[in-house]
Amino acid sequence: MHRWNDDELRKIADADDLHVSPFREDGRTYGTPTWIWSVAVDGALYVRGYNGQNSRWYGAAAQQKAGRIVAAGLTKEVAFEPVDGPILDSIDEAYRSKYRGNRYLEPMISARARSATIRIVPRQAGVRS
User: 29: pLDDT confidence band, cut at 50, 70 and 90?
Assistant: First the structure.
């Protein structure tokens, strides 16, 4: 598994244009790009499903565990890893910092959204995790 280089992670974290496309059930075709919020914490990239585990993209990401993202002018093949535990509090803080004042912030730090937190990890094209 690869890590984000500092420049890529900074560009993605600073942008507000991340689109996620988990693979469809065939494991080869990308799903419809979905715009979502992203944050960086301790050198890792995280996203959450606004509708929790009922978010369509989240279900596909949890099942397929791979796909791609497009953000900050970058297109990256990625793996999706579910997240739980104490890191969720740090992710909440990152959301508060980045999206302060936005009316959608509270739902994004709710228990529903926290239950659908995913770490996005870069991977080599054509390599499934």
Answer: very high
In 3D space, the residue among 10, 31, 35 whose CA is nearest the CA of residue 21 turns out to be 31
89 Cβ contact partners less than 8 Å away, ≥ 6 residues apart: none
pTM of the model: 0.93
Sole residue written with tokens 């244009």: 17
Query: Does an H or E element contain 118, and which?
Result: strand 117-122
All domains in the chain, ordered by first residue: 6-122 (2.30.110.10)
| Opening angle at CA 48, ends 111 and 124, nearest 5 | 145
CA distance 66 to 77: 8
